[in-house]
Each structure stands twice: as structure tokens, then as C-alpha cells.
Specification:
This is EpsG-like putative glucosyltransferase. By secondary structure, the protein is an all-alpha fold. The chain has helices at about 10-30, 40-55, 60-65, 70-80, 85-105, 110-120, 120-125, 130-145, 150-160, 165-180, 185-210, 215, 220-225, 230-245, 250-255, 255-265, 275-290, 295-310. It has two domains: about 10-165 and about 315-329, no CATH class; about 165-290, no CATH class.
Length: about 325
């Protein structure tokens, strides 16, 4: 699955990535601003983030930190320069452009698969209905690919202040820094990650409530499950098995992506928000899998296509592909 395209680092390839990312972001930004799920909520943020910020500030410092203050400050700034609708368009364009550009630029010889990745519903919806999460992913990705260490730390550290799921992703990132620093063996890395997942899965919502995060008190989050059928668990378990079959060297070199998988599976039946956490790191998992070899590479190709079709098939005939507000557009 390779395309005849300019080689990595060439000017022509970068221009192509910019053009595709620009079109992708422009198209998403141009969708009906009121026609999709949760847009009314984001319009409230665009208009009243100053009041929301003051409410959290009146509580405590920890409440501010755990309730996405950078997201609120961005909306406060934008409200002084743009309408609420244009604020949403700005956020959609920024996040979708940077995510798509950085992904498309990453592995040129797999350009077809990279396009498939950014068109997967679980990725696409972060720029249509989960705008705060999409912005968090874009900031994390900017940091992830930044070569200047202080800026890398800055953007990765900024992500959880935009979307709370990155508190978990950043914790996994720091865990991998610990693994590398102390040269922990692969098997113990797996044990520590699964153990941390079980603990956070059992205590995660209680901890969110104790820290004053809105997720800990929200009935929506408390009732949220990753997938009642368990099909997602089976699918990503198979994906993880293929990862592990590639060998210790591959796991060692891609253990952050593997950590996201292990954490997701270990918290699947324990942590209501684990699916949202996984979606924040899903692209990193998919990109890491491009390094698989032999039959394992073609096995994940098959899984990509299956996953892509199974996600799109049920929603193709629905208004707004299942994301329309009130089911109509």
C-alpha cells in the first residue's frame, strides 16, 4: 500500500501535505456550525468562558487546573476578536490542519494509509463533535514532533489543560520516560503499565471528583462506557497481540504506543472515560504499527480496512453521518 509520491523531506511532498491538510481543515471548518452534536455547548464556551473560568477560580486552584483552563482562556481571548461561530471555525481549522499535516508528513511511503487514518470516524469526530479533544490532540502532536526539547515539554504539558484525557496520556508518557531512564525490561514495563491501569481504572472517577474535575461529578461521564458489546476490546486485543508478536525490540522502540494499548485494555471494564483517553492516543498507536514487518504488517492492513469499513458502514445513510444535532440537518 504505497503511493508513487515525492520522497520524505522533499519540498514537493511537504507542499502536497500542506495542500491536503489545508483542504481537510477548510472542509471541516465549513460544515454547518449549528448542525452537529454538542455545537450548542461549544457556542456557550465561546460566549461565556469568562464566567465559567471565574466560577472555577472561586473554588480552588486544583479545580481550575483540572477543568481545562487553557481551553477557557483561549475562548476568552477569541471572544474579544471573533463571533462565537467564528471561534469554533478557528478551533476546527487549527486542530484539524495540524493533526492532518503532521500525520501526513510522518511516513510518506504509507501516504494512502495515513489518509485512511485521518478519515476514520474516531479521528474525524474530534474535529466535528469533540472540538476540545481535537485541539488537545493537535497541541500534543505539535509537541510530539517538536525537536526543541523545551517547546516539546511545553506543548505536551499544555494538552491536558485543554482536554482532561491528556492527564492520562501524559502520565503514560512520563511512565515511559521512567522506563527508558532506568532501562526497565519489556516484561516489567507491561506489568507496571497494566498495574497502573487497574489502579487508575478503579480510582479514576473518584480521583477526578476529589480534584474538582467536572468529569467526576457528571452523570454523562459516569454512565459512559467504552463499548457495551465488548467488540472494541476484542479488536484492540487482537491488535495488541500482533504488536507483541513483532518482538521485544519493536515493543521497546514503540512502547509509548504499546502503553496506550495496554492501558486501554486494562481499564476497559473499569474506567468509564477510557474510550475517550484511547481516542486521544489512537493515532500514535496507528502510526507505530506502520513499523511492523512480514505478515504482521499485512495483518494490520487488513484490520485497518475492516475497522474503517465497520465504522463507516452503519452511519453512511444517517444525517450528518450520525453526528447531526437532533438527528436532522
Amino acid at each position: 500500500m504505497k503511493l508513487l509520491i515525492p520522497t520524505n523531506g522533499s519540498f514537493g511532498y511537504k507542499v502536497m501535505c500542506l495542500a491536503l491538510a489545508g483542504f481537510y481543515a477548510w472542509f471541516l471548518m465549513g460544515l454547518d456550525i449549528d448542525g452537529y452534536i454538542d455545537r450548542a455547548n461549544y457556542l456557550i464556551y465561546a460566549k461565556h468562558s469568562d464566567e465559567i473560568f471565574v466560577m472555577y477560580a472561586a473554588s480552588s486552584f486544583k479545580t481550575i487546573i483540572t477543568n481545562e483552563p487553557i481551553w477557557l482562556l483561549l475562548n476568552i481571548w477569541a471572544a474579544r476578536h471573533f463571533t462565537a461561530e467564528d471561534t469554533l471555525r478557528l478551533i476546527i481549522f487549527f486542530s484539524s490542519f495540524w493533526v492532518s499535516f503532521l500525520v501526513l508528513r510522518s511516513y510518506p511511503k504509507y501516504a494512502f494509509l495515513l489518509i485512511l487514518f485521518i478519515l476514520m470516524p474516531q479521528i474525524l469526530k474530534n474535529h466535528i463533535i469533540h472540538l476540545r479533544q481535537g485541539l488537545g490532540i493537535s497541541l500534543f502532536f505539535i509537541g510530539w514532533w517538536c525537536r526543541y526539547l523545551p517547546l516539546r515539554i511545553f506543548f505536551i504539558g499544555l494538552a491536558p489543560l485543554v482536554h482532561a484525557s491528556f492527564f492520562f496520556i501524559d502520565a503514560l508518557f512520563l511512565l515511559n520516560v521512567f522506563f527508558s531512564t532506568y532501562r526497565i525490561s519489556t516484561i516489567w514495563r507491561v506489568v507496571y503499565t497494566v498495574g497502573m491501569g487497574v489502579v487508575l481504572g478503579a480510582l479514576g472517577m473518584w480521583l477526578a471528583g476529589a480534584l474538582g474535575a467536572r468529569q467526576g461529578e457528571s452523570a454523562e461521564y459516569s454512565a459512559m462506557g467504552s463499548d457495551g458489546s465488548g467488540l472494541a476490546f476484542l479488536f484492540w486485543t487482537l491488535f495488541t497481540v500482533i504488536f507483541c508478536m513483532e518482538g521485544k525490540e519493536f515493543l521497546k522502540n514503540n512502547f509509548f504506543a504499546a502503553t496506550i494499548l495496554f492501558f486501554y485494555l486494562s481499564t476497559y471494564f473499569l474506567l468509564p472515560v477510557t474510550a475517550r483517553v484511547f481516542e486521544s492516543g489512537m493515532l500514535l498507536v496507528l502510526l507505530a504499527s506502520l513499523g511492523l514487518s512480514d505478515w504482521r504488517r499485512y495483518a494490520v492492513y487488513g484490520l485497518y480496512v475492516f475497522y474503517f469499513c465497520m465504522q463507516w458502514y452503519p452511519v453512511l445513510g444517517l444525517p450528518g453521518y450520525g453526528w447531526a444535532s437532533n438527528g436532522t440537518m
